[in-house]
From TrEMBL:
Localization, UniProt: Cytoplasm
Lineage: Eukaryota, Metazoa, Chordata, Craniata, Vertebrata
Listed name of the protein: Uncharacterized protein
Gene Ontology CC annotations of this record: cytosol; nucleus
Gene3D superfamilies named among the record's database cross-references: 1.20.1270.10, 3.30.30.30, 3.30.420.40, Actin, Chain A, domain 4, Substrate Binding Domain Of DNAk, Chain A, domain 1
């Protein structure tokens, strides 16, 4: 199982993994930890991330960015319609009515759903994680803005599935940040003490999120959250773009908004300027060469002026801060720290406002860009059975109050009930009891549409099927479990009918007061109690994603309270599970998700083939340039003049071909072309390499010969060090050394008569084999240790060094295989194969 956290930002994405005992944000193929949320479509392939970002100007109509907030939205949604006007690429309506993105791909006009586009991005991020971890990745935790509604969340879950990811939890960005903050804190108050309240502020490119969280040792509890979904770094960019459009209109008579390419460049430059202004308060220039109609434009701005222009945006900073404090019923003195994250939180005027509101210095202990991804990876590690993480319980909240509506015969009309109030703990299940004779439907909706950053309060309709009356014709008791799950998504997760049985008929005796009830639609709410156990609890792999332990149903508790059970006769019952038909707001059908998965697979394959084709082409190009240089450089003397001319001509022909017929060929054509060229080039290169390596190989052999000769000489002169060696064996060494010397001299002699353009008389490999042969024959004989001499005990104590004296390293040539130093590699420890363990301490 993989432990991966993914922050899919509006502008940039981050991937964090659990590795080597900690959480690490990993870099992409450009060694960058941030990957632009950008997908570019071409005639032969797609590019994603940094490669796509590079095409924002050159292929602007088919390069898609800023699509995060189209998730779960209809094409006609007011947000989509208003965003559409400022996009350089086209949007289109999907057959389902949802938002699609219209681009030219593979030389055809295509409309991709937003789930498909995000899946393309996720495919890239998945690959980044796989490259870093050197293994396949599926399990992960993905972040979403806390203000996402169900439709938006479900759309992201579908995107993950299309990309082949198993999203264990959709984590609210705010909650991910609180986890990244809290889990490392050693000094949190004990569980029974007053919690430490910390406010978190995240200002990203598209959204502004504030939350307040209570920390105790081993747990965090979100208290409240607030947001402004219409405030982010991009709005500050927009102010700058409008300012310069106006200025350039007056100064240069340019209508910038009519030229998508110019507009894209202006956005890029304005964003750079905005960042520079965060660090510098003096006048700063904005210059763009050949901006439009070959005109170079220049402008300037300073922070003071920028802040004046952004007064309207800056005024929006305070409301969510106020809202969380009010919701959580906290006073400013109750706040221990205010942590800020998100790229746009670096704008000094934003920091100033937040700091002023709380009357305290802001804290920046987290990595402002990576905290969300790191929090997600931590959550994934907690969910993974393979990692040991300090136990930490996470209680999130329901962001919008959720109500259920149903037809009620007793009350003659619609009844409704708020099942999850705002800031109710999540994930959470509740059991509702109905009395019904026939199937019935429940409609779930957000009951405060005004606060939704989404135009439609509908969540979905759930039909509880196969409801039948009791045998005596009375209403049946139907228990319906409603749930806000780990992804923050509402569902009617199960329903069951309690069938009353005649005595001795049932299997599950149960005391109940419901027998004989006449009401048609009375509802009891039986709240789950939340166990103190928490998320940190390890469970079996299947249950992990559900954090079921937080949701132990206390079914029956309430019944007992108002059931005078002692007096009631015992009624036997049987529980029958009932099917539920869901009709969720803007939910992709399973068939469509499967089709998109299949298509994503095909597109991945197409990208791979195109990459291979391109690589094959580049290999030919590189070989041509490399050889052309070398033929007049290092290889010059290893090729005859006529061969060189032929080869140079072939290289030139190939270069011309690459810009002509060879511009666009199949992969195999390039492979064959390279092979043809190599037929000419390879022998020359080999002769060069042989000539380079040969002297070193002869030196090595010579060194071995000399060393063994020295030992033979020392043995003959009866040096004490060698007197234990065997005479016959030493004769063998003597002979081997002489033979090797004769071989070497004859080969050196033959080689000296050869021309550089001819095949060498002896190959480096042969010389190395000779060295090895000499070593294998002689080394075991000459390195035999001297027999041990018994030393009297008291003498022994005075000795510090080795008893048999120093090893004569000088006279012991290293193995040719080990290299001169004779180093050996320690065998891999058995520990290396163990499952990694991570202690977040
Ligand atoms: P979101 O959270 O809305 O989905 P995101 O996660 O992609 O978006 P971030 O990466 O947190 O957004 O922030 C990007 C924004 O921060 C951009 O608008 C960028 O220009 C802005 N930004 C980054 N650095 C600075 C800086 N030094 N000064 C001002 N703005 C900055
Ligand atoms: Mg973000």
């Amino acid at each position: 199982m993989s432990v991966v956290g993914i922050d899919v930002g509006f502008q940039s994405c981050y991937v964090a993994v659990a590795r080597a005992g900690g959480i690490e944000t990993v870099a992409n193929e450009y060694s960058d930890r941030s990957t632009p949320a950008c997908v570019s479509f071409g005639p032969r392939n797609r590019s994603v991330g940094a490669a796509a970002k590079g095409q924002v100007v050159t292929n602007c109509k088919n390069t898609v960015q800023g699509f995060k907030r189209f998730h779960g939205r209809a094409f006609l949604d007011p947000y989509v319609q208003s965003a559409k006007s400022s996009l350089v690429y086209d949007l289109a309506q999907m057959p389902s009515g949802m938002t699609g993105i219209k681009v030219m791909y593979m030389e055809e006009e295509k409309v991709f759903s937003i789930e498909q586009v995000t899946a393309m991005l996720l495919t890239k991020l998945k690959e980044t994680a796989e490259t870093a971890m050197k293994k396949p990745v599926a399990d992960c935790v993905i972040s979403v803005p806390s203000f996402y509604t169900d439709a938006e969340r479900r759309s992201v879950i579908d995107a993950a599935q299309i990309a082949g990811l198993n999203c264990l939890r959709l984590m609210n960005e705010t909650t991910a940040v609180t986890l990244a903050y809290g889990i490392y804190k050693q000094d949190l108050p004990a569980p029974e003490e007053k919690p430490r309240n910390v406010v978190f502020v995240d200002l990203g490119h598209s959204g502004y999120q504030v939350s307040v969280c209570a920390f105790n040792k081993g747990k965090l509890k979100m208290l409240a959250s607030a947001f402004d979904a219409e405030l982010g770094g991009k709005d500050f960019d927009e102010v700058l773009v409008n300012h310069f459009c106006e200025e350039f209109g007056k100064k240069y008579k340019l209508d910038v908004k009519t030229k998508p390419r110019a507009l894209v460049r202006l956005y890029q430059e304005c964003e750079k300027l905005k960042k520079l202004m965060s660090a510098n308060s003096s006048d700063l220039p904005l210059n763009i060469e050949c901006f439009m109609n070959d005109i170079d434009v220049t402008g300037k701005l300073n922070r003071g002026h920028f802040e004046e222009m952004c007064a309207g945006l800056l005024a929006k900073v305070e409301a969510p801060l106020h809202s969380v404090m009010e919701q959580a019923k906290l006073k400013k003195e109750d706040i221990y720290a205010v942590e800020i994250v998100g790229g746009a939180s670096r704008i000094p005027a934003v920091k100033e406002r937040v700091s002023k509101f709380f009357g305290k210095e802001l804290s920046t202990t987290l990595n402002a860009d990576e905290a969300v991804a790191r929090g997600c990876a931590l959550q994934c590690a907690i969910l993974s059975p393979a990692f040991k993480v300090r136990e930490f319980s996470i209680t999130d909240v329901v962001h919008y109050p959720i109500s259920l509506k149903w037809n009620s015969a007793a009350e003659e009309g619609l009844s409704d009930c708020e099942v999850f109030p705002r800031n109710h703990a999540a994930p959470f299940s509740k059991v509702l009891t109905f009395y019904r004779r026939e199937p019935f439907s429940l409609e779930a909706y957000y009951n405060n549409p005004k606060e939704l950053p989404y135009p439609d309060p509908t969540i979905g309709q759930f039909i509880v099927q196969k409801v039948v009356p009791q045998a005596n014709g009375e209403s049946s008791k139907v228990k319906v479990k409603v749930r806000v799950n780990v992804h923050g998504v509402f569902s009617v997760s199960s329903a069951s009918l309690v069938e009353l049985l005649k005595p001795n008929e049932g299997e599950e005796p149960m005391e109940t007061d419901s027998a004989g009830k006449e009401e048609e639609s009375k509802m009891q709410t039986e709240q789950d109690d939340q166990k103190a156990k928490g998320d940190g609890q390890k469970d079996d792999a299947d249950k992990k994603s559900e954090t079921e332990e937080m949701e132990t149903s206390e079914d029956g508790k309430q019944e007992k309270n108002h059931a005078p059970s002692a007096k009631k006769p015992k009624v036997k019952t049987k529980t029958v599970e009932l099917p539920i038909e869901n009709s969720l707001h803007w939910q992709l059908t399973n068939d469509l998700v499967n089709l998109f998965m299949e298509n994503e697979g095909k597109m991945i394959m197409q990208d791979k083939l195109e990459k291979e084709r391109n690589d094959a082409k580049n290999n030919v190009e590189e070989y041509v340039y490399e050889m052309r240089d070398k033929l007049h450089g290092v290889l010059e003397k290893f090729v005859s003049e006529s061969d060189r001319d032929t080869f140079a001509l072939r290289l030139e022909d190939t270069e011309n071909w690459l810009y002509d017929d060879g511009e666009d060929q199949q992969k195999q054509v390039y492979i064959d072309k390279l092979a043809e060229l190599k037929k000419l080039g390879q022998p020359v290169q080999e002769r060069y390499i042989e000539a380079e390596e040969r002297p070193k190989a002869f030196d090595e052999l010579g060194r071995h010969i000399q060393q063994y000769m020295k030992i033979v000489e020392a043995y003959k002169t009866k040096e004490e060090q060698y007197e234990h060696l065997d005479e016959l064996e030493m004769l063998k060494v003597d002979k081997q050394v002489n033979d090797a010397m004769i071989w070497m001299n004859s080969k050196m002699n033959a080689q000296s008569k050869q021309n550089f353009t001819q095949e060498p008389a002896v190959k480096v490999q042969e010389i190395q084999a000779k060295t090895k042969e000499l070593y294998s024959a002689c080394n075991p004989i000459v390195s035999k240790p001297k027999p041990k001499v018994e030393i009297p005990k008291d003498e022994k104590e005075e000795q510090n060094g080795p008893i048999n004296g120093q090893e004569d390293t000088d006279a012991q040539p290293g193995s040719p295989e080990k290299g001169a130093a004779g180093s050996t590699v320690a065998p891999e420890s058995a520990e290396g194969n163990k499952m990694p363990e991570m202690d977040i301490d």
